[in-house]
User: Fold these one by one.
Assistant:
Number 1:
Amino acid sequence: MGKTKLIAVGNTVVAGMTPALRRVFHEISDLVVSLSQNNFVFYHTVGAKVAEVSNEAKAEKYGTEPVPRLAAAMGIDAGVLWSTMRLNRDYSLDEVKRLAGLKTRDGRAGVAWTHLVHLLTINDRSVRDKLIDQVVGEGLTVKELLAEIQRRFGTRGRGGRPMTRPRTPFACLQQIAQISSTLVSRHEDVWSDALVEIGRLPPDNYTPEFLAQLDEALEQQERVADVTGKDVKKLRELRERIAEIVEAKKKKGK
């Protein structure tokens, strides 16, 4: 994701940021250009900025819900930004560089960012590091790592930053509209063309790890379709009931 695309996706959201938060957004935009997103240094650097804006003592400077706002502007889930903050908090720059240099027995990169996103939900650093050793030693794919995490911890209780709940019902509706718009933009501007390109890749690109990543993307999209379908139904029910109340108030006021 290049700088122009990032800003294009988040243009409306950026306009509503405080000047300080807008400056951080553009700093991250510049990092996207200057550093490879496969480079753990990129995520570690972004994590420092996320830690800065999420400091509640600086709420007046960065506004309400600064991390979800940054995520919406970038067209990503806020969980990714929380993961970068945890990476920055738990690992020094030298440790991050060491992680990036780990190799499997057959010479492949031992740990990918998608591995780390799931590993960083584990609060116990010693347990997490042992899992990293297992990922590298056994060459686990992301899907295999998830299965191992679920086997050890179940689907809950792994830790991680809780989602930020909007402070008011009106803010909740704003968040739904904002993130939904970002998701649609991401599909129209990026995913639709990328999926066509994926289908045209030479067969040599289709590896077991590639298939595992496709399975994960499919699974998550199916979850999105399921929960958004339920949300749409509930929103329609609310709209019908609230529209009747508003109309009744109008008639009473005449």
Number 2:
Amino acid sequence: MSTPLAAAKGMASDGGTTLAGIDEMLTSEPPPLRAVFVDKDGTLVHATPHGVDADRIELLPGVGEGLRLLQDAGFLLIVTSNEPGVAMGRFPASALTQVEARIDELLAPFGVVITSYGWCTHHPAGARAAGAVACSCRKPRPGLLLEAAATQGIALERSWMIGDMLDDVEAGIRAGCRAVLVDRGGETRWRAGRLRTPSAIVYDFADAASFIVDGRRKVRASQSS
């Protein structure tokens, strides 16, 4: 006969699971997924003109190790990038498939798997060109993140954005995430404001991953070593 305490915990007095406990396990919802959204050029890979020549794409230092740390911590990994070259006729949308394949190839030795890629292929904001549209997916707008969250079942409040520009930070915060800025010296518009204030500013991707997984302590330790 099970004790009240055992029954309350769904356990039989002999240490087994009661029918109520089994029913609870079968009907309980899994915890919501969490993700890290990662910018491409200047964050994930070296920035190159147009960023779609697969032969020239190379990972930045610490990216493979950092992504593996995030993956092992249970985060989905989603790449998001503005790619206006498609709308501007500089390269076809099909070129992005080759970019994805190249990034996957570079990350394979680290055992890292990108969950999905999100591309905004529209003109830059304010462009006056035939076919230009005001889209909701070009960062700093959060459309790419919101779409991925809806598709993958991601809890944005438990997720993060990593980028090298404040537009990346703003996109993440607008979507409901927290954000880390990897300052590589490319940001030139340091406009203040809540939407453009990251939770941390680091100088290496691995430190961004450590901040997300382990907090400030490990980042400070790596910087002092």
Number 3:
Amino acid sequence: MKKLLSLLPILLIISCSDGLKEISEYKLVERNGITYEVNSNKPFTGVGISEQTEYSNFSKNYYEEGKFIGWEEFHSNGNLYTKQFDSPLVFEMYSYDGQLEIKTLGDLHEVYHWNGQLKIRRIKDSWESYFDNGQLRDTGSCINEQKIGLWKTYNVNGDLVESKEYKNNEKQKCYFE
């Protein structure tokens, strides 16, 4: 048991480290759309670090075989602010105190209340919104940002208060805030 406990800190460090080489963005150069370390002919795989300035936050740019694949930007307190990776599409935005505010993963898009509760979830044309207590507020479908088909609306206690059918010619916007 003592051996297992003594290995725990090492296992935590290894699991938290992604093993990618990290170097300053100033030590990277782009040639013909491929990123290399300065004075190298091998496409760079790793993380390019950009230091915080008065005009931008500290950030990390990720490269795989010389191709840019994503980035992370941090608040001045060190907490993650935004991250985006393109394959699959991932985007997340966080508040200054580290609370997740927006999350996109492929066709899934979510917005969160101030308290961390889900506010809006959209998957392709399917739409759900929630009160800040976590209770479902309304559900339905949106096509081209217009409500379509059956929409159900609930009160803060979860009781159904309205069911309405929207037709193609009705102009009722889906608000995504």
